[in-house]
Amino acid sequence: MEAVKIGLIGLGTVGTGVAKILIEQKKLLEKKVGKPLILKKIADRDLKRPRPVDLTGIELTTNAEEVIEDPEIDILIELIGGYEPAKTFILKAIKNGKQVVTANKALLALHGEEIFKAAAKHGVDVAFEASVGGGIPLIKGIKEGLVANNILHLFGILNGTANYILTKMTNEGMPFKIVLKEAQEKGYAEADPTFDVEGIDTAHKLAILVALAYGVPINFDAIYIEGISQIEPIDIEFAQEFGYKIKLLAISRSTEAGIEARVHPTMIPAEHLLANVNGAYNALLVKGDAVGNVLFYGLGAGMMPTGSAVVSDVVDLARNLIKGINQRTPALAFMLEKRGAKPILSMDELEFKYYFRFAAIDQPGVLSSIAGILGKYNISIESVVQKGRELNGAVPIVMLTHEAKEANVKQALKEIEGLDVVKGKPIFIRIEDSLRVE
Fold this sequence. Notes:
11-stranded mixed β-sheet; alpha/beta; 24% strand; 3 domains; Dihydrodipicolinate Reductase, domain 2
């Protein structure tokens, strides 16, 4: 093999970054791989749009099939995103014996099992470092760097848009909708930000991480998902008074009963490193039984950081091809046939400390009525703050609780919402004091 030839489908932001690195770092990459990496052909729907990269000498087409069917191409990079036609393209490439690199976390979260089984059947590799954490080497870190460990837990800030919004809300006291609009104007948020702000993008990434960490099949549908659109500046302000910051966290733990896998706004101690991951940055805290806590940190998106992760996969696969080997490392860390199902625990059965905020009419007996209902459901109050600042004709009552079962909390809050003296829906946010620095 004189050179490794590469085909790219999708020349958007990340695709442009990949092309830029492969072209401009060609000499560096050849020194590290031992053979030239040649970007032979690119497919994209719009080839006329100007891009900050010189594509002279590269075959360009609007037909992805030309790239997939090209017998000279050794590695196919899929960067179009979405479910279809990305899934069809990847499965065709696998069937054609090509190695595949993708950054498509949504596709892998929902159809990864089918894709990885097809790759195993046809004796090729599917690499996906860029699917979680952008330029941060999370996949390789867990799959190879921490291979000697049982993973005990994962805590991750995995969506830069959501983290940017919460950071602005925290630092400037601005409401969610105004910050979101500003983020869209600056290009940090999509025109339709649902996947980012409602936790879906984070859950896609967590589904992949759970499979890597615990040797279970990818199961996106079992992950509990809650976004940040209901967070208000008043909650951030109260959190700070109690010594916490609010972050959208992906959380997973391995227990004897099963696996926790959840995405939701979480109050974490303000002194913790994760509480101080700001702006569009991502971070993942991994605890292994041998290594202890390891923190990965960096830019989770963007042309060049994500392009860097894609090219790292290309280099890995190119090295394998040159040596005449494949499937040296299991795609999901565990040998496919050695994985086993383990239940994803229901949120209702889990116990947390909670932050509650009620909007109540300022009159005698209100606090005792609320406390009475909480006591009825075995929810113990740790502290209470009642301030005389009116919001829509009601005064906020804020409570922190000791650990309580989620199912009991939901029942109690539903009953409290029905009280005549309580206006609107009670707000609750889970607290993770396990992250407290000792």
